[in-house]
């Protein structure tokens, strides 16, 4: 299901196996040069493909953004925590190609990710943002109705310094204003 969002030149669509080489390159850059991810070694293409399959197997979306036929960013949702009581809470991840931040790619991806996740049983989306100085990600999430729920001080250590974790959250659909349907609650 393809949908143009935010800017006419950004196409947000489902990620395919063929996209994963570029996805791995984008993520590797962020792992090796940034603090958004607390990983320190870039995962292999094979590992990234396994992670994508895990997301898809749980019924959650894994998306890419294209500009002029080239993948320039990706986003996906994953389960927030494995314990059953968390089954209605998911975590988003958004990464944009180096040098393309602030051009609407992340917003187009996250907007579509939210839209798709609201079609499922999930009620809360949580952003776990590496680095309280990551103003791009914080502002992106704020622009899409996420609110700051807390900062975990000095939870990561990377590039010779302590890094905070910023927590942001937004409701999906009815959020906590209604209970899940009985069939959803039993099958989830």
Spatial order of strands in the largest sheet: 1-2-3-4-5-6-8-7
Q: Provide the helix percentage.
A: 25-40%
In terms of quaternary structure, what is this? single chain
List low-confidence stretches.
1-6
Q: Topology as H/E string?
A: EEHHEEEHEHEEH
Count of beta strands: 8
Determine the N-to-C terminus distance: 25 Å
Main sheet specs: 8 strands, mixed
- Determine the number of helices (DSSP H or I, runs of at least 4 residues): 5
Backbone CA Rg:
16 Å
**Category by helix and strand content:** alpha+beta
Outline:
globular
Average of the residue pLDDT scores: 94
Q: Work out the strand percent.
A: 25-35%
At a glance:
This protein has 188 residues and is of the alpha+beta class. It has helices spanning 20-33, 45-57, 105-117, 135-143, 182-187, and strands spanning 3-4, 10-14, 62-67, 70-79, 89-96, 124-130, 147-158, 161-171.
Please provide a written account of the structure:
With 188 residues, this protein is α+β, with helices and mostly antiparallel strands. Helices cover 29% and strands 32% of the residues. It has five helices and eight strands, in the order ββααβββαβαββα. It has helices at 20-33, 45-57, 105-117, 135-143, 182-187; strands at residues 3-4, 10-14, 62-67, 70-79, 89-96, 124-130, 147-158, 161-171. Strands 1-2-3-4-5-6-8-7 form an eight-stranded mixed sheet, sandwiched between helices. A hairpin with a 2-residue loop joins β7 and β8 (161-171). The longest helix has 14 residues, at 20-33. The model is unreliable at 1-6 (pLDDT under 50).
């Amino acid at each position: 299901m393809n949908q143009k969002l935010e800017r006419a030149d950004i196409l947000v669509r489902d990620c395919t196996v063929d996209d994963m080489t570029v996805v791995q390159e984008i993520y590797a850059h962020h792992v090796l040069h940034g603090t958004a991810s607390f990983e320190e070694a870039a995962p292999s293409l094979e590992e990234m493909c396994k992670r994508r399959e895990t997301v898809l197997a749980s019924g959650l979306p894994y998306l890419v953004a294209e500009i002029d036929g080239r993948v320039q960013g990706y986003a996906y949702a994953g389960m927030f925590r494995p314990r059953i009581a968390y089954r209605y809470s998911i975590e988003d991840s958004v990464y944009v190609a180096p040098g393309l931040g602030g051009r609407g790619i992340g917003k187009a991806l996250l907007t579509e990710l939210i839209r798709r996740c609201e079609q499922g049983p999930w009620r809360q989306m949580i952003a776990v943002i590496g680095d309280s100085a990551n103003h791009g990600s914080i502002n992106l999430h704020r622009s899409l109705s996420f609110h700051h729920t807390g900062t975990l001080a000095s939870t990561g250590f990377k590039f010779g310094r302590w890094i905070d974790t910023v927590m942001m959250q937004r409701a999906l659909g009815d959020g906590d204003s209604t209970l899940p349907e009985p069939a959803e609650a039993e099958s989830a």
